[in-house]
Amino acid sequence: MKKYHPYHLVEPSPWPIIGGCGALFLTTGSILFFHFTHKSIIIIGSLTTIIMMIAWWRDVIRESSFQGLHTIKVQTGLKEGMILFISSEVLFFFSFFWAFFHSSLAPTTEIGSNWPPEGIQPLNPIAIPLLNTLVLLSSGITITWTHNSLIKGSKKNATKSLTLTILLGIFFTYLQILEYSNSSFTISDSIYGSTFFVATGFHGAHVLIGTTFLLICRLRLNYNHFTTNHHIGFETSAWYWHFVDVVWLFLYTCIYWWGC
Question: Which segment of the chain is annotated as a signal peptide (predicted)?
């Protein structure tokens, strides 16, 4: 059947409902794990989400790279959707900064009318946090190098720079884990611990998600799925990575440097 429009009418798919079930199991399993250390539900949720991601991304790659369904009009819609998604993520992190400044600018008597609260030894902002800042800023440079290489048709440089970006993302995650393991306070240590670990922890989760995006792009680059003018999968992943970079700059400036 011929179509006389530039839009992609998506076929019925089981992955949205399976993804929703995976998210339900993950959130429910997280609560059970935090309170009762029950692991079975969170493991089921993780496996369901991973399987859904692999299968759904496989379908999207087929539609874009092999079936030619991602026309210029469809690509425009995908870019607009990604912009809306990142905008919602901005508001998501805005709520954490709101909680942090609400607590730090007018500390209550319960925490000693002081910020950081009495008994809290903040992390040194010019130690691991500064190194993490340099790592993420460097990854922003390398991913821009990848984009320019794709536009110029240089697969060798694109492969090299994208691999370097992924390694920097993994190194950032390793440093974050190292920082958490050496911290003198926990998420349950007053409002300082809560705001610190929730804000930086969710940012760390976004780094892991962004690294996963870039890993998929690296595999697709290896199979020649990207051209000089059709690489929206990488382009939206790069937008997401730059967003993660900017959020970290605010986290470092406000929570690590000013907050200590």
Answer: none
Helices 232-251 and 190-222: angle between axes, nearest 10 degrees: 160
Q: Which two tokens stand for residue 112?
A: 């000693």
Question: Mind listing the domains of the chain with CATH numbers?
Answer: 1-69 (1.10.287.70), 71-255 (1.20.120.80)
Residue 176, token pair as written in the block: 């974050």
> Could you tell me what percent of the chain has a pLDDT over 90?
61
Q: Indicate if the pLDDT at residue 2 is higher than 70.
A: no
Three-state SS annotation for 96-163 = HHHHHHHHHHCCCHHHCCCCCCCCCCCCCCCCHHHHHHHHHHHHHHHHHHHHHHHHHCCHHHHHHHHH
Query: Which residues does 260 contact at the CB level (< 8 Å), separation at least 6?
Result: 116, 122, 123, 124, 125
Cis peptide before 107 (omega within 30 of 0): no
Angle at alpha carbon of residue 88, lines to 85 and 93, rounded to 5° = 125
> What distance in Å separates the CA atoms of residue 254 and residue 197, rounded to the nearest whole number?
14
Question: Whole-model pTM?
Answer: 0.89
